[in-house]
Every structure is written in C-alpha cells, then in structure tokens.
Amino acid sequence: MDRIIKIIGGALIEKVEPRGRAEEDWSRRSRFVGFAGYLVIKASADGRCYAVIDDGRRCISTSCGELAYTGSGATFTTGNSVYTFRLAAAAQRSA
C-alpha cells in the first residue's frame, strides 16, 4: 500500500512541460493546466515518490519523480514531465 510522504494542501497546476519529448506528444498533458485541488506526495511500495492532486471528484497522479519548492510554488519533475504548481498561501507556509 502506498503511503503519504507529505500533505502540501491547496494547489493549482500552472504548467506542464515535456522533458526530452517531441511537443506533438504533449496534447494529453496540456489539458491538466488549470486543474486545482489538494496536493499530496506519496511513496509507492518500492519507495519512489509521486504527486497526486485531487479536487474531490477527479484525481491526477504523476509518475515517479522529485519535488522542489520555488517561491510561491513547487515543481514535480518526472522522467518525461515537469509539473509546476502554484500553492495556496496555507500550503506555502507549511512547505
């Protein structure tokens, strides 16, 4: 069973960028921009971390990667993508 590593709180996906992929492969991820919800970092059974953002009706989960904080936001970098999140004020204080 996956375990929660860090509960970050309210967040908005501001940007999703490719890492080493052609732009034409990118349309399915671009629809995530503007998605807002509760951001949580989880670890799979093998210990690798991934991000989950849930709005109470829908949930987006990334592949495994690394979290970094940037000013009023955070990025989560996977093998194929860089997700940029704007964090709610309360989430910024707890980061």
What is the C-level CATH assignment?
Mainly Beta
Give the number of domains: 1
* Structural class by sheet pairing and helices: mainly beta
Count the beta strands: 7
Describe the main β-sheet briefly. 7 strands, antiparallel
Provide the CATH architecture.
Roll
Low-confidence stretches: none
Shape descriptor reads globular
Overall mean pLDDT stands at: 86
| Strand residue content | over 45%
End-to-end distance: 25 Å
Summary?
This protein has 95 residues and is mainly β.
Describe this entry's structure for a reader.
A seven-stranded antiparallel β-sheet has the order 4-3-2-1-7-6-5. It is mainly β. The longest helix has 6 residues, at 89-94. It has helices at 27-30, 89-94; strands at 3-18, 36-43, 49-54, 59-61, 65-70, 73-78, 81-87. The chain has one domain (3-94): Roll (PH-domain like). Strand 5 (65-70) and strand 6 form a beta hairpin. The model has no long low-confidence stretch (mean pLDDT 86). It is built from two helices and seven strands.
Keywords:
2 helices, PH-domain like, globular, 95 residues, mainly beta
Helix/strand layout:
Blueprint: E1 3-18, H1 27-30, E2 36-43, E3 49-54, E4 59-61, E5 65-70, E6 73-78, E7 81-87, H2 89-94
Antiparallel strand pairs: 1-2, 1-7, 2-3, 3-4, 5-6, 6-7
